[in-house]
UniProtKB/TrEMBL annotation:
Key words of the record: Disulfide bond, Glycoprotein, Golgi apparatus, Lectin, Membrane, Metal-binding, Signal, Transmembrane, Transmembrane helix
Record-annotated L-type lectin-like domain positions: 35-257
Protein name: L-type lectin-like domain-containing protein
Membrane topology of this protein: Single-pass type I membrane protein; Single-pass membrane protein
Gene: LMAN2
Leader sequence segment: 1-27
Localization per Swiss-Prot or TrEMBL: Endomembrane system; Golgi apparatus membrane
UniProt cross-references to Pfam families, sorted A to Z: Lectin_leg-like
Top-level taxon: Eukaryota
GO molecular function, one term: metal ion binding
Gene Ontology cellular component terms for the protein in this record: COPII-coated ER to Golgi transport vesicle; endoplasmic reticulum membrane; endoplasmic reticulum-Golgi intermediate compartment; Golgi membrane
SUPFAM superfamilies per record: Concanavalin A-like lectins/glucanases (SSF49899)
């Protein structure tokens, strides 16, 4: 009986942990409540606030083409660079950005490039000559081409990076030496649009993706200890080299998160915060890490399967042991009658 109770308790604890994990994943993404939408930081069809006038909330550079249906950062042509930037600095302490995008082109597998970057930076970056790649803030890279031939990753690959201006994204190593985490995502040449959600709240950065257009978010990156200031700018950029793709932004929607802070946090000057991440090891230590991650990756895919398998095996073992013990006790009791 005691063994059977042990089995029940194990099942109960496992189910609680399982539910807590997935509730933490899916509660991280807002339902897109319109009343929290910040239009001054959002890029939405038909893109009326885009232009070069002083009243525009978004401006663009390079090969960017603005239509009524999408903002094309680069066409499917070689050696193109384009970007679009919000002209209004963001002073929200807790926010969530939803990016609807599409990467497509005529190139076959591994014959396309190079990808899209989503930015939250101190200055609006201009691609091209004169740009050294150093920045202050946050960058999310949707990299579609592996420059590092020795890489064991599956591309396209999504990664995050926080910089205080002292180091740049390493294109030759696909950003591996500076990334905070990442995941593979089949975002190219889909018949539908793909989605990326970037959430920053109370020092935690969460990246979610929806590549199947099912309105279901899947966790890609979840990192604590992230410090980002207010007053930075949101933007998106893309580039092509010898290989190319169409890189389209359909929308960028910014939502304010209603989060309470301590009096000490509210009294702090958030514009003076230095972009940083509290990690157990330096980003440079990630060069020799075959997984390419600083921390344990989310419970997804085969890791979930292994966890379930181990839990089920543990339950079966406990059940068998409990049954044997129970049977022996019954036999022992019979001898006294």
């Amino acid at each position: 009986l005691a063994a059977l109770l042990c089995v029940c308790k194990m099942c109960h604890i496992f189910l609680l942990l399982w539910l807590l994990h997935f509730s933490s994943v899916y509660s991280d993404i807002t339902d897109g409540n319109a009343e929290h939408l910040k239009r001054e930081h959002s890029l939405i069809k038909p893109y009326q606030g885009v232009g070069t006038s002083s009243s525009s909330q978004w401006d663009f550079w390079g090969s960017t083409l603005v239509t009524s249906q999408y903002v094309r950062l680069t066409p499917d042509e070689r050696s193109k660079q384009g970007s679009i930037w919000n002209t209004v600095p963001c002073y929200l302490k807790d926010w969530e950005m939803h990016v609807q995008f599409k990467v497509h082109g005529s190139g076959k597998k591994n014959l396309h490039g190079d990808g899209i970057a989503i930015w939250y930076t101190k200055e609006r970056l201009h691609p091209g000559p004169g740009s050294n790649g150093n920045f202050h803030g946050l960058a999310i890279f949707v990299d579609t081409y592996p420059n590092d031939e020795a890489s064991d990753r599956s591309f396209p690959y999504i990664s995050a990076m926080v910089s205080n201006g002292s180091f740049a994204y390493d294109h030759g190593k696909d950003g591996r030496s500076t990334e905070l985490g990442g995941c593979s995502a089949e975002i190219r040449n889909k018949d539908h649009d793909t989605y990326l959600a970037i959430r920053y709240s109370k020092g935690r950065l969460t990246i979610m993706v929806d590549v199947d257009d099912r309105n279901e978010w899947k966790e890609c990156i979840d990192i604590g200890g992230v410090r980002l200031p207010t007053g930075y700018y949101f933007g998106a950029s893309a580039a092509t080299g010898d290989l190319s793709d169409n890189h389209d932004i359909i929308s960028m929607k910014m939502y304010q998160l209603m989060v309470e802070h301590t009096p000490e946090e509210d009294s702090q000057d958030w514009t003076k915060i230095e972009p940083s991440v509290s990690l157990l090891k330096s980003p440079k230590d990630n060069i020799d890490d075959p997984t390419g991650n600083f921390r344990s990756t989310p419970l997804t895919g085969w890791k979930v399967f292994l966890l379930l398998l181990c839990a089920l095996l543990g339950i079966v073992v406990c059940a068998v042991v409990g049954a044997v013990v129970f049977q022996k006790r019954q036999e022992r009791n019979k001898r006294f009658y």
